[in-house]
Design goal:
Layout lengths: L16 H15 L10 E6 L5 H12 L3 E4 L13 H11 L2 E5 L3 H10 L4 E3 L7 H15 L6 E5 L4 H13 L2 E5 L8 H11 L5 E4 L2 H5 L4 E4 L11 H8 L6 H4 L7 E4 L11 H4 L6 H20 L3
Length: 306
């Protein structure tokens, strides 16, 4: 993965199809301990949003590589007092080897990366969640062996996860369908970006019909109906999104061997029923574990671990 050394990952579109597959292969080798890598470097975590899986998986991944982690909680740094992004970026660039940022605006992430020479990784913005989707693709590959030609349907809010899923599936040679209520569709620029990546070899479909979107698919995926920062909208969204719940009826329309994914945290019996989440077709816990393995592969690649 020499081609990734020193590079940022701000969007899945920063990667090529070959680089995605090589990352997934490395992640699988690291998980099975077929490959062991060492990297005595320092990772900084600058998170402006709450996090469980992203924070812990990045931390454990870096420790297992032999590196160190500094949790740069904005509340105890000068970021909370309004220090400009470009100033923070140029200072941290001189202390750290790699930085993972979890923030609201994609533009803030891109500004940070433009002022820092070290690799900057998107650990979630309002626009994208690329590291999540690397783990998702790894989980699907574990279940089916080959990603090419599979179809994934995402049902729910057209949020950052939906955006990254479109890009990730396009890069992996998968078809992707996004089913949302009217007015909650994914970012139109990302839709067109994903379609351009497919080069008409696979499809990127956006629809308001959840049953049509789920028919015969290999993977069903959902996320909470109100993302971080939208909690005040949760009650209003509930009746709008109810037809988009992944339940046993919706699952029965998919391929009999379909798997179910959720990026977590889940609001059980809202966007997904408890029965489906705990059912035999759920791969949610494997998916959560794979965050660590996929991110370990990414860190090792951008840092040039040996």
């Amino acid at each position: 993965m020499a081609a990734l050394i020193g590079r940022d990952l701000l969007s899945l579109a920063d990667l090529t199809t070959q680089e995605v597959q090589e990352l997934l292969t490395l992640a699988t080798q690291l998980k099975s301990k077929q490959v062991q890598l060492r990297c005595n470097k320092v990772l900084g975590l600058l998170f402006s949003k709450a996090s469980t899986r992203t924070r812990v998986s990045f931390t454990v991944a870096m420790y297992q590589l032999g590196g160190q982690v500094i949790d740069l909680n904005p509340n105890v740094t000068q970021v909370s007092r309004g220090e400009p992004i470009q100033d923070t970026a140029r200072v941290l660039d001189r202390y750290l080897d790699v930085l993972a940022i979890r923030t609201f605006a994609q533009q803030d992430l891109e500004t940070f990366a433009s002022y820092a020479k070290i690799p900057v990784i998107n650990a979630l913005t309002d626009l994208e969640h690329p590291c999540q989707v690397l783990a998702d693709l790894m989980t699907i590959q574990e279940s089916f062996g080959d990603l090419s030609g599979l179809t994934l349907t995402y049902v729910g809010d057209g949020n950052n996860v939906a955006n990254s899923l479109m890009l990730g599936c396009a890069l992996a040679g998968m078809n992707v369908r996004i089913a949302t209520p009217v007015g909650y569709e994914p970012n139109t620029e990302v839709v067109e970006q994903a379609r351009a990546i497919t080069n008409n070899k696979t499809s990127v479909t956006v629809t308001n019909d959840p049953e049509a979107a789920v028919k015969g698919v290999n993977v069903l995926y959902t996320d909470v109906w109100a993302s971080m920062g939208q909690e005040q909208e949760a009650d209003d969204r509930m009746p709008i999104f109810q037809p988009y719940q992944i339940n046993e009826n919706l699952l029965s329309i998919a391929d009999p061997n379909a798997i179910v994914l959720h990026c977590l945290p889940a609001h059980r019996d809202e966007e997904i029923t408890d029965a489906v989440m705990e059912g035999s077709q759920s791969r949610i816990w494997e998916q959560a574990e794979n965050r660590m393995h996929a991110q370990k592969a990414l860190l090792a690649s951008v840092l040039g671990a040996e």
